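B., you asked whether I could sanity-check this one before it goes into the benchmark set. Here's the sequence:
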Amino acid sequence: MNRNLQPAAGASRLGLKLILPMLLFAGGLVVAAWQMGEALVLRHAIGEGRTVADIADNIGKWASQYGGLHVRTVGTNAKIPGNFLTRSVYAMSSGDSQVLQGAKVDAATAERSALERVEAYHWKNPALVQREVADVISASGSKSRYRLTARTVLNKNNAPDAFEREALDALQAAADGKTDAAGVQEYWRVSGSRLLYARALVAQPSCLRCHDKPDNAPEFIRTNAQFNGGGGYGYVAGKPAALISVSVPLASLEATVVRSLPPAAWAALGLAVLGALWMLMLALRRRP
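And here's what the prediction gave me:
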């Protein structure tokens, strides 16, 4: 009886010797694939964060070329174009100017007609342009958002949150050479299902019109309580002065892997799995 059991026991030991390495190999492959997938998801989110930060930065640089933007409205009853820093009003002709200044006596209808032709130009600085674009993106339902902030701000609504203060400290330490990442101007971390990304914002010469010294700021900023945030001054052109803070969603691991691997890669993976199963079946069918 013992002799009859020997072949079965030998086959069992052979199968065990084959199955265990195969299971270890498969387990290691799964863990490695999972880690690679998570790294791929993170890299994709960081790339998206950088792209959003690029958009915000380039919008500011574009507006800075012109010292900001002026929004034109026509007529005294025109809708005010949101927030602005200064407004300049012009009559369309010398005749309208004389009517409106009272230098030319005319009927009331002429005055109303002149008021309908009055042009007003509302100045928005580059930071305000960037913020309004951010508001449009948020209102559009986009899952990726950005905002501008700094260690001290003119507008209290732009004060940094916990992550942004963390990013400001990390970037300052890197700028001071206190970390191994000396000179790095970006910082990120994962928070739940989102990636929080931050990049140092370099001050442009046009930024100094509002952010140089309090005494040099436009009167609208100096006298408006909305901009009495206790800071926001002391910028130096060409030096990091603020922060672009970006929030982007983390894609699911499954969706990222499916999008990232081409059909040929899936076909090759399938063939590899079939080949491994075939080899295991052939080995188990062998008898000593």
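One thing to flag: The first helix runs from residue 2 to 64. Otherwise nothing jumped out at me.
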